[in-house]
Amino acid sequence: MPEQVKSSSGERSAGERIRSTARRAGTRLWSTRRRRLTTIGTSAALVAAAVTGVLLLRDSDPGAEPGAKGARKLVMAYIDALADDDMREACRLMHPKVVSSMAEADGGCPGAMRAQIGDRLSGKERGRIGDIDVHAAQVEGGGKVARVEVGSGPKGARKSTVTVERTDGHWRILED
Q1: Do residues 34 and 99 lie in contact, with contact meaning Cβ atoms separated by under 8 Å?
Q2: Rounded to whole angstroms, how far apart are CA atoms 144 and 148?
Q3: Dihedral of CA 142/54/80/108: which sign?
């Protein structure tokens, strides 16, 4: 450790004043080694948190899971987005071909979705969107296309099919 130089007036150096103040307060000063170890530990924790966040974000895509289960999850998330009036999320879950066809509308895809669906539904009708049941999914075309059956109304009397396609490793809504 380098030696402390006292001033010509005989006063204590800043380091000595800090140490004596810490001693009086009953506080230990951290050594350089301890500060380095703490910095390394904190950095490692931040890196681990960032990696975990990226993995969680990756897994948060409902269309990421392959097969019928992933196709059903995507359709459920799409219905939830519509029920919540979250047209951005609904567009994120749609196939790029569909999104690009809506790109020229005022407000892009979310604006087109709102014009087609959102503005026409009252609050009561929007609540009914959340009541749509997602049934079985049939995967076809070597795992690239799935047809997901949905039902609404009393006991799922009104049935329809949502077609989803696997693109870039994710299921996306192709048509509903």
Answers
A1: no
A2: 13
A3: negative
The answer to which of 20-34, 90-104, 122-136, 156-170 has the lowest mean pLDDT is 122-136
pLDDT tens digits for 101-124? Answer: 887 777 788 888 877 775 556 555
Rounded to 5 degrees, what are φ and ψ at 171? Answer: -75, 140
Residue of 29, 33, 34, 35 lying closest to 16 (CA atoms): 29
CATH of domain 67-175: 3.10.450.50
Distance CA 41, CA 88 (A): 39
- Return the half-sphere exposure (C-beta side, CA atoms, 13 A cut-off) of residue 42: 6
The ranges assigned to domains in the chain are 14-59, 67-175
pLDDT at 82 over 90: no
